[in-house]
TrEMBL record, chain A:
Localization per Swiss-Prot or TrEMBL: Cell membrane
Taxonomic path: Bacteria, Pseudomonadati, Pseudomonadota, Alphaproteobacteria, Hyphomicrobiales
Name recorded for this polypeptide: ABC transporter permease subunit
Superkingdom assignment: Bacteria
Domain ABC transmembrane type-1 intervals: 99-304
Length: 321, 685
């Protein structure tokens, strides 16, 4: 691609690959630091030391770390994510399945939080200084500081245990239709919706207030344009650029932040997968899981950057220089 | 009478006892009180006054776009016969779409950054009922009418791809597109170069006649108002204190406030000519003066009666009014401030210049192996106590030169900077402390130059400590000395910048620059963000400090009035080259370079005489690919032969030290307009 945007994309892709490689190194080193070895983890604390050593040898865990790293990365490059120690089976299907589940959850989260957050932010901005703005601002800020595990437990108690409106577990019965799946996902989605709502609403509010007080908005009003046109064409178009960037970047963060929620709701997503792999010293699974999350985060950031550039003509022009 | 008749016969704007109040913390603050004025169809009316006088509030009120805490508290504003307060939402929108248009100060901000010019242009026609393609066609046509030579390209551009002058043309085109009865211009040229300012003013003047629109021109730039307007109103503290035909009002003011403002202006004089006066004190906060004349606390003619009786609008001649009991005594207005001493630079064979620049160039590398020569081969000297004025359009290299002198940017190899005869390294990081102390700067905008988190004491104290190396009790006394020198009081020491007025902030910046007894101060547009009355006080302060301390100034300004008032010598720059340098009087009066001639002809004067404007054709060429021969040849109205395109002219020096880079012989070069008598008139009584 010869266009400035193409060059920008290529450069960013290169950077992403570099980041991904760094992530792989960090993940690998992290796994090495974990106490214990896979043989002991699989066979249990009471097993004979010779049996553990034999298993480690069989699994290839007794080789020097550098060698282990290169064989891991080498396998990865050929599409082999490695073998799970715990399940004695290829890792890939587990990771794929878990990623799909997590993405569904992330999808539900953003389906709820984006309209809600942006809407609240814009409404607050249009009524800046009035009671409704204060209520929205204070609420969103207070909600943001509630950690997921606190709100999750409260939500479970209220909606699943006391009111019994929503199912307690996020896992739906096999073969359930999309609607049933959605019903199961709403409750697990809410804790992160609560955290992200305040963030998105504040971004949207700040952007809208800035755009509203701008000279170009005044110019648009003084052109005699209907308020709706002023709002959509002139105000929101400029106001929501930073918000959209933040939302796109947050999808990556949300995926990583699912560990707590998925564990609490017993949902077999990628967060849960990573946690149980870490407990079981299932290094291949752990590394593959974290690397997947990292890759997703990088892709989300890349998409966020592309959107920002596409929405902002000035940035687009700067690419051309 | 039919509807159309009332429309064409009613004045474009009629304000009748208009009062506007802002509610702040539950209290009503009157921002405008009983303002009455009428602008006839096709007339240009100037509204002048300092910041906070309520000028912009007039514009906002008559379009009903006051901030949410503001409202019309009494009186009427009628645009083309319609009382804006009585219009319903739909009618109001129609009025905005049809009858009135407004151009804001900063065209870069008035255009939506994420829409093309074409889209924004078409909107104006669509709202009046044009179809999409028709709106586009008419938009293009409109851009042609504001003398944009390539409308199709501009239509497809985004605002940031256009220059400031071009953006302002687009905004004016958008405003005139609806063929409004009233066009409001709110400081439309502030922040534009002198040549572009002149172009915009010319354009507005021509278009006003073409379109027959009335103009409400809001500005603190009295000269710009004088050059464009038929009538002028002077606003002070929300009251219209004087009104009349522009030329008469500026030549013979009948209100002490107007007279005071005019005395603050650097008129056509040179350094050592008429001293600037200023208006002591500050405008009163809205609503603080409930009895008597609002100007009484700052007035040189004040009598007991002024503090008790509010003056009515006295009739002081045909079409003229003044809210002053003593409007017939305005000529006796005493000087309100001491005239500062004027310094003569030390010159002579035995005097070492304080600053010597030899063959200074600055080349920036661009991606793709391209180069920009922001400055090329500048050689000049600065004597102790001398002021060198630096003029030229944006992109001429003035700021680059200043940065090189300060060491903030490093000059190319081969150049030399010497301070007091000692050569110093290019970068400020390698200069010895003495050299850093020696050269200081005063920025245009004190708001961004002063750290908002610190107190005045800290701001000045830090400079004293870091630059002068003075600590302990001596530091305290030094801070007080500086404070006194810039006419601030110890009361201001604990204040933070936001608690100070613009003028006070600039005084703090001046104090900081003087903290370590500098030899040279670069003044980069030191007063262009300030009101005229504050500007004159700062300019006087600079003169005074110069006389006291033999400091030298490099004064960068696009206001030629300011430059000629302060400068001993003037240097004119274009595309990174020095085109002319010499004693201020020789440069201004000529014979001078054709570029200087064009710059001078662009400057409006408060007398309203504009002389013959010399229009420069085309844009400033790109410094990446400068024209061959004389760099000015692509725009020069005096280009006479092939040699202009092939050979760079020599820098011809006469025995007065006046050098001009032009192939034309001296006797064929242009001369300035003669200003009769202004140099000898002593301002004040």
């Amino acid at each position: 691609m010869g266009s400035p945007f193409g060059r920008f994309l290529l450069r960013r892709l290169g950077l992403s690959l570099l980041t991904l490689w760094l992530v792989s190194v960090v993940v690998f080193l992290g796994a090495q630091v974990l106490p214990g070895d896979p043989g002991r983890a699989v066979l249990g604390p009471l097993a004979d030391a010779r049996a553990v050593a034999a298993l480690n040898k069989e699994l290839g865990a007794d080789r020097p770390p550098v060698e282990v790293y290169f064989s891991w990365v080498g396998g990865m490059l050929q599409g082999d994510l490695g073998q799970s120690y715990a399940y004695r089976a290829p890792v890939a299907p587990f990771v794929g399945d878990a990623l799909l589940k997590s993405l569904k959850l992330v999808g539900v989260i953003f389906l709820i939080v984006v309209p809600l957050g942006v809407g609240a932010g814009v409404i607050a901005a249009l009524n800046a200084g009035k009671p409704i703005d204060r209520i929205l601002s204070v609420t969103s800020l207070s909600l943001t500081v509630i950690p997921e595990f606190v709100s999750a437990i409260a939500l479970i108690l209220v909606f699943a245990v006391i009111l019994r409106w929503l199912p307690l577990s996020a896992s739906w019965p096999t073969g359930a239709g999309p609607l049933t799946q959605l019903q199961h996902l709403i409750l697990p989605a809410l804790p992160l919706v609560i955290v992200l709502f305040g963030y998105i609403a504040r971004m949207a509010r700040a952007g809208t207030i800035e755009a509203l007080s701008s000279d170009y908005t005044r110019t648009a009003i003084l052109k005699g344009l209907p308020w709706r046109t002023v709002l959509t064409r002139h105000v929101l178009r400029n106001a929501l650029v930073p918000t959209i960037t933040v939302i796109a970047a947050q999808t990556g963060y949300a995926l990583g932040g699912l560990v707590v929620v998925e564990t609490l709701f017993r949902y077999q997503g990628i967060g849960n997968l990573v946690l149980s792999a870490a407990k079981a010293k299932d290094f291949a699974m752990l590394q593959a899981g974290i690397l997947t999350i990292g890759a997703f985060f990088i892709v989300a950031t890349l998409i966020a950057d592309c959107i920002t550039v596409m929405l902002n003509p000035r940035l687009r022009a700067e690419l051309g220089r | 009478m039919s509807m159309t008749d009332t429309k064409t016969h009613s004045p474009a704007l009629e304000l009748e006892d208009l009062s506007v109040a802002y509610t702040v913390r539950g209290r009503d603050l009157p921002v405008l009180s009983n303002v009455s004025l009428t602008i006839q169809r096709g007339e240009a009316y100037g509204l002048v006054g300092e910041s906070g006088s309520g000028k912009s509030t007039v514009a906002l009120a008559l379009q009903r776009v006051l901030p949410s805490n503001g409202r019309i508290s009494s009186g009427h504003a009628r645009v083309a016969g319609k009382d804006v307060a009585e219009l319903g939402a739909t009618e109001l929108r129609r009025m905005r779409a049809k009858d009135v248009a407004m151009v804001f100060q900063d065209p870069g901000k008035a255009l939506n950054p994420s829409l093309t010019v074409g889209r924004q242009m078409a909107e104006v026609f669509e709202i009046l009922g044009s179809s999409g393609s028709e709106a586009k066609r008419r938009g293009e046509e409109m851009l042609g009418r504001v003398r944009i030579s390539d409308p199709a390209r501009v239509m497809a551009s985004f605002p940031h791809q256009l220059s400031g002058g071009m953006q302002q043309r687009v905004v004016i085109a958008m405003a005139l597109a609806k063929d409004p009865a009233l066009l409001i211009l709110d400081e439309p040229t502030t922040g534009l170069d002198a040549t572009i300012e002149a172009e915009v003013l010319d354009l507005v003047d021509t278009l006003r006649q073409e379109f027959g629109a009335a103009v409400l021109f809001i500005s603190h730039n009295l000269a710009a108002v004088a050059s464009l307007c038929n009538r002028v109103g002077v606003l002070y503290a929300g009251k219209l204190v004087e009104e009349g035909p522009a030329r008469e009002l500026f030549n013979d003011p009948r209100h002490p406030y107007t007279a005071g403002l005019l005395r603050c202006l650097p008129r056509a004089g040179f350094k050592g000519g008429a001293a600037l006066d200023n208006i002591p004190g500050f405008p009163p906060p809205p609503g603080s003066i409930t009895q008597g004349c609002v100007f009484a606390p700052r007035c040189g003619l004040v009598q007991e009666r002024c503090r008790v009786d509010e003056p009515p609008l006295y009739d002081v001649g045909t079409g003229r009014g003044s809210r002053c009991h003593f409007h017939d005594k305005v000529d006796d207005l005493p000087r309100m401030s001491e005239a500062p001493p004027v310094n003569t630079p030390e010159r002579g064979p035995n005097v070492e210049p304080v600053l010597k620049l030899k063959h200074l160039s600055k080349t920036y590398e661009l991606p793709g192996n391209r180069k920009v020569q922001a400055l090329r081969d500048v050689t000049l000297t600065l004597d102790p106590g001398e002021t060198l004025g630096l003029v030229g359009e944006s992109g001429s290299g003035k700021s680059t030169l200043a940065n090189l002198v300060l060491g903030l940017a490093e000059h190319d190899d081969g150049g030399r900077i010497s301070i007091d005869g000692t050569e110093v390294p290019a970068s400020v990081h390698q200069r010895p402390r003495e050299a850093i102390k020696a050269i200081q700067i005063i920025f245009q905008n004190p708001d961004s130059a002063l750290n908002r988190a610190h107190t005045v004491k800290h701001l000045i104290g830090r400079a004293v400590e870091k630059l002068a190396g003075i600590v302990g009790s001596e530091r305290e006394s030094r801070i007080r000395q500086l404070l006194e020198a810039v006419r601030l009081t110890p009361r201001q020491l604990p204040a933070k910048p936001r608690q100070l007025s613009g003028g006070m902030k600039q005084r703090v910046a001046v104090a900081r620059a003087f903290a370590a007894d500098p030899r040279v101060i670069v003044c980069d547009e030191p007063t262009s963000a300030l009101d005229v009355s504050v500007q004159s006080a700062i300019l006087n302060l600079l003169s005074e400090l110069q006389a006291e301390r033999q400091v030298s100034y490099i004064l960068i300004s696009h206001d030629l009035g300011v430059v000629r008032h302060l400068s001993d010598r003037i240097a004119v720059m274009y595309l990174g080259r020095l085109m002319e340098i010499g004693p201020a009087r020789s440069v201004i009066e000529g014979p001078h370079h054709p570029y200087t001639e064009a710059l001078l002809s662009a400057a409006p004067t408060v007398t309203g005489e504009r002389g013959e404007r010399i229009r420069l054709e085309g844009q400033i060429p790109s410094p990446i690919d400068p024209p061959t021969g004389c760099v000015f040849n692509t725009r020069c109205p005096r280009k006479f032969a092939k040699i202009c395109e092939t050979e760079e002219p020599p820098f011809a020096l006469d025995d007065e030290g006046h050098a001009i880079r032009c192939h034309l012989p001296r006797e064929k070069l242009g001369r300035g307009r003669r200003m009769e008598g202004v140099d000898v008139v002593e301002a004040g009584a």
